[in-house]
Amino acid sequence: MLTHPAFDLDVVRRQIPLLASHVPMNACSQTPQSERTRAAAEAYLDSWGRDGMDWERWMGEVEAARAEFAGLVGADPADVAVATSVSQATASVSTGLDFTGRRCRVVVSGVEFPTVAHVWRAQERFGAEVRSVPVRPDGTIAPEDYAEAVDETTLVVSAAHAFYQNGWKQNVPALAALAHERGALLYVDAYQCLGTEPFYAPSSGADFVASGNLKFLMGIPGIAFLWVRPTLAADLHPAITGWFGRRNPFAFDTRLDWADGARRLDAGTPPVLEAYVARAGMAWLRELGLGHVAAWVHALGARLAEGARARGLTLLGPEDPSERAPTTAIVCEDSHAVEAALRARGIIASARGPAIRLAPHFYNTLDDVDVALDALADVLRRAGP
Predict the structure, then answer these.
(1) Which helix (H) or strand (E) holds 130?
(2) What does the radius of gyration of the chain's CA atoms come to, in whole angstroms?
(3) What confidence tens digit (pLDDT) does each residue in 108-135 have?
(4) How far is Cα 189 from Cα 251, in angstroms, rounded to an integer?
(5) Which of 371, 376, 369, 384 is CA-nearest to residue 338?
(6) Does domain 38-285 have CATH number 3.90.120.10?
(7) Does the predicted model carry a pTM greater than 0.70?
(8) Domain extents for the chain?
(9) CATH of segment(s) 9-34+289-383
(10) What are the tens digits of pLDDT across the range 157-183?
């Protein structure tokens, strides 16, 4: 097993102040602030305070964040839209599709974060027929389950890259092949995985890839990005729109002309402060190298799974780290009470339903994993059967 990452972990850790007092294991919910992201936020605040308004600079930073995301997923910036959340990104796509024809079915995987399913179900009033593919008792979905649900009436398949509850990863290229074979599109919410391994949207087979930034991308709430396969963009006419979805936002024209490429899915005034922070977080990951990050988080995930079993803890979902994002879910009776008890000990975890999730990232150590597992085992032992 890997015992040290390819990058200098000590240097990395010195840039995250929270590590001096806590063990953050909640990257599946919110990664900690770094010196880089704080400096980025302060750069915007300084500009605002000093200049009052500097739209050219601020819009330049939004464009730089768009380009940074594009670089992260191996895409062209012209094929990336800027949104305020994955909810908005999904809504932009869903309202840009036409459900009035024979192809009106939306196949939604049972591993979607609820907000994505909510958006698709909201389209039922406009003709969409939403069908869900349930999660199996082992916390996964088998390919044949999709095969039964996707037919010649399916317009789009919505399948998260990783299950928010237990971290199980889906095979995006295989899902894309199935969807395309039957004439459907594939929408992927990559929020629970992006930033932990190399992922190239154009070669993944997906038609849409969305992610926010507060999780593994080291950012904050309020911004998200959406990659759109370039051959599809011109046919999208979303009802979720705004002045930045126009050819020239600063023409202040009320006509509904559409920007080229994925920019037609931009909406209102973009999230400027969030763009500063998002760019800094993504740039740091690209600097470290996502291949190096992936190798280290895999080692941390393996230590988690092995350590949980050694302590008599029960994992929810697949145990093999290669089948999961860095998230490891451990069964417990009252996950929110366990989360609070761990926080009192300086361990930040994330409750979700019947499990407490431990999700390390590139800044964590093997010792962090052991400390978190020891604390969790003690909390569960004290709670009793």
Answers:
(1) strand 129-133
(2) 21
(3) 999 999 999 999 999 999 999 999 999 9
(4) 33
(5) 376
(6) no
(7) yes
(8) 9-34+289-383, 38-285
(9) 3.90.1150.10
(10) 999 999 999 999 999 999 999 999 999
